[in-house]
Design a protein that fits this description.
The chain has 15 helices and no strands. By secondary structure, it is an all-alpha fold. It is globular and about 55 Å long. The protein starts with 6 loop residues before the first helix and ends in a 19-residue tail after the last helix. The model has no long low-confidence stretch (mean pLDDT 94).
């Protein structure tokens, strides 16, 4: 529907992402990964996020996750599947994320009754073509617990946007490290946060910067050129345009209700201190709402 502009996709992402992200940062989730047999934070991260795909190889995870150094992935996958099956990991991640949301967002249970039907309708109409992480998450059984269903739906939509973002980045000829270097230069994010969390070395980072400089996207100082800023803006606009399509299944009243309910929950997550700022997801810090 025409009332849903592409910019809505960015606004709603900013409130979906905190709800999804408890699975990375909440102590319940880290402990659940440990209890199921996964070793260390990164094995837990890669196994939990990839589990909807099944016991896939490292190459599949590298392709789907895109912006991690391949060696970082291969330190965790496929070894993770020898410690815990994808089915066990899926149960652990859902239970832990649900418990974390109930703790840090006290209104989650009440909001879920209204927001889950809207989220699930959006998930149902979304196009899964070329979106492996989204399609895998959408294909999981629907949880009976409403807060768990809330987390699963937000996760599916988060991966829908992420899959589309990867498609745009690759279409523009950027590799995983280059995408981070350009993002850090344009957005002023400390390079170490992205570089270290994604497993790239200082040498990798500099080589990527050199390639971007050769393309005219960065100055020799590392600052973005006008062309670099333009490409960065284009990537975000195109990502939003791809991500907004499923929300057009909702009426104007329903999109307002969806955003209002998710904003309340996201504020509760963000003010709990569960998610660090700055963070490698590029999620902006909470701002006062009027």
């Amino acid at each position: 529907m025409a009332h849903v502009e592409a910019a809505f996709a960015r606004t709603v992402w900013q409130v979906l992402e905190p709800l999804h992200a408890v699975t990375y940062f909440a102590p319940e989730s880290r402990e659940a990964n440990r209890m199921v047999g996964l070793r260390g934070f990164w094995m837990g991260y890669f196994a939990a996020r990839a589990a909807p795909l099944g016991a896939v190889t490292a190459g599949v995870v590298e392709a789907a996750f895109f912006n991690f150094h391949p060696a970082t992935v291969r330190r965790a996958i496929p070894d993770a599947w020898g410690f815990a099956t994808p089915e066990a990991v899926l149960r652990a991640r859902a239970e832990a994320a649900t418990a974390a949301l109930r703790r840090v967002a006290p209104s989650a249970a009440d909001a879920a009754a209204k927001v889950v039907p809207l989220l699930e309708r959006t998930v149902a109409v979304a196009d899964g073509a070329g979106r492996p992480l989204f399609a895998a998450n959408r294909g999981l059984p629907r949880p009976e617990d409403p807060v768990s269903a809330l987390w699963q739906a937000t996760t599916a939509l988060r991966e829908h946007r992420g899959d589309g973002h990867v498609a745009v980045l690759t279409a523009e000829g950027l590799d995983g490290c280059e995408a981070h270097v350009l993002f850090a230069a344009c957005e002023g994010v400390p390079a170490a946060i992205l570089r270290d969390n994604r497993g790239w070395s200082e040498e990798d980072w500099q080589m990527a910067a050199d390639r971007l400089t050769a393309r005219g996207l960065l100055e020799s100082s590392g600052r973005p050129t006008a062309e670099g800023r333009g490409l960065r803006a284009h990537i975000e606009v195109r990502t939003d345009a791809l991500a907004v399509r499923p929300y057009r299944a909702l009426t104007q009243t329903e999109t307002a209700q969806l955003l209002g309910l998710l904003s309340l929950l996201a504020d509760q997550v963000l003010t709990s201190g569960t998610i660090p700022f700055p963070n490698p997801m590029g999620l902006p810090a909470r701002q006062a709402r009027t």
